[in-house]
Amino acid sequence: MDRRDFVSGAAAGAAGAALAGCGPSTEGGGEAANVQPQQNVRWNLASSFPQSLDTIFDAANILAERVKQLTGGRFQIQTYQAGELFPAFEVLSNVQAGAVEMGHSASYYFKGKDPALIFGGGMELLRELFAKFNVRNLPGGNTGIQMGGWFRNPIQGLEGLQGLRMRIPGFGGEVMSKLGVNVQNLSGGEIYPALERGAIDAVEWVGPYDDQKLGFQEIVKNYYYPGWWEPGPALTFYVNQSAWEGLPQTYQHALEAAAAEANVRTLARYDARNPQALKELVDAGVKLRRFPDEIMRRAETATEDLLRSQSSGALYDKIYESYRNWRQTEQRWFATAEQAFANYAYQGVQLSNPG
Amino acid sequence: MDRRDFVSGAAAGAAGAALAGCGPSTEGGGEAANVQPQQNVRWNLASSFPQSLDTIFDAANILAERVKQLTGGRFQIQTYQAGELFPAFEVLSNVQAGAVEMGHSASYYFKGKDPALIFGGGMELLRELFAKFNVRNLPGGNTGIQMGGWFRNPIQGLEGLQGLRMRIPGFGGEVMSKLGVNVQNLSGGEIYPALERGAIDAVEWVGPYDDQKLGFQEIVKNYYYPGWWEPGPALTFYVNQSAWEGLPQTYQHALEAAAAEANVRTLARYDARNPQALKELVDAGVKLRRFPDEIMRRAETATEDLLRSQSSGALYDKIYESYRNWRQTEQRWFATAEQAFANYAYQGVQLSNPG
User: Which candidate in B71, B282, B333, B343 is best for mutational testing of the A interface (most A CBs within 10 A)?
Assistant: First the structure.
């Protein structure tokens, strides 16, 4: 979609409109009494992402465009990038407070509020978790596996990580810190200049498509994989619970269906955009290198230690156990037919030899 | 959803109803003149699948249920399993003729009509292909990778395939025939008795979840992987072109959104159901075995030979080239971070040693 067309169209219709979906909540599952099925509803959505991360940010636009189509234009959602309404890391609290009807974010950004927010799956348990924040959660896209990041020099084993100044936020940064890395937190726009003037030695961002746009390949050439701290990070749409309950059922269904579609289309876009970007990076002289096994093993141990020790109580423990069981059962299946096929089909297709 | 509830509910509303969506087609992209946005529409959908393949068959029910929800019950689609309205392999021709508004099938079933129908991706080119059949195609689910099938005895290299009587239909069967297999075509219900009385030596069906229900593990124990002839078979919803054009735009959007959701939910269900079934099969004494490399290599060569030689003309060639280019670019990306992560994470998780 053309975001500008949508936004200007929505703005015309929304000028001065009350937040029709934000009436008092209603009981139970029936048609909400305070909004008629044909009523116009105008919502706002605050994203934690900048428009420059276009694949992620557009998940919200895919949702908004489809909801508009499904309701004949009667339910419209205007999307705002990080900082337009609220700073990126204040999205959840503002949806919780009802200052905005919807948000779009990566829930691990908010692990300070509850460490259980780092888990991306198990819908029933996550509904229980988000209820504490007055939020109804819907799936909101996925980047697929990310890359491990850009390093000025090839990594010399675990020793090479000691004191290395690396930009890596969140839980991945906590693990890297356990491995001896000097973890730096920089926002997207600060990274390139810091890398250029030698203030940092390494950086992780997303994957080939998003990384290429920030231009790290102009400064450093060692591009490591896999991004083991984000092998498939789930994004989430947040809906204020009272706003949700104020919607006619048909509009609730429209939101659910549009979120499901935005979820898979966002991953499909990454799957389509990353391969081409990776090829261009390698053509431009970037060296692809795999993290050494000793770093992978040490990171795995540190990750499991942190996941165990940071428990916030019974619900955390339930989600963690559910996640571990699910992962074990799934891996046994995917390690069979899927992995055997991939290992056969991928023989010799790599773009350059791993270092 | 509860299929029976839906079907009986729809039947009450649909009794004697005309096929409101099947009026004469209208021009262009505007709101269709012959159906009002609030009009009731009752469609039928003929599936090529039996209800016993519940994950695949339910893709059509997910679609129908969501379309009903999105339109406040005004657009309802009644689903029929294979054989209820038409035989499995006559679904496409009946959608083409307008005898039914929708179908759900695996398009490679119809490669006799045009061999280009074996390709599962490239939406723009496939729209051009399906237009020849008076059909608008929508994505309709995926099983994920399938298993290679059940063999009475472990396979002794390529020689072991000579004259082996194996139930394997379609393009996979054509390839197996090139490898010396005596290919048998049997419908689902005929397989178990044929295996039991020794009339066949091997059979492929789908994957752990569907295979377990047919009970092959009670007779033979060697379960091979990967199902290289179906590493991710795409299913498709067919919509009769005139029926599509007769829909109000809002209903067209409802169909598109519901199909996108049914597409990904069906794959998600397989991803959730196969692992548990695989575990139960192994617990019951089934031996997991990987196809030997020499068979994989010979099958790959035979597949590429067939894909090249069966061309039906310019459109086939365009789709085949698009598929090859896409596959090469995608594999280069997935062979990097994704495969490195999987190979690390799956160490030692296999349920039993490959033979």
Answer: B333
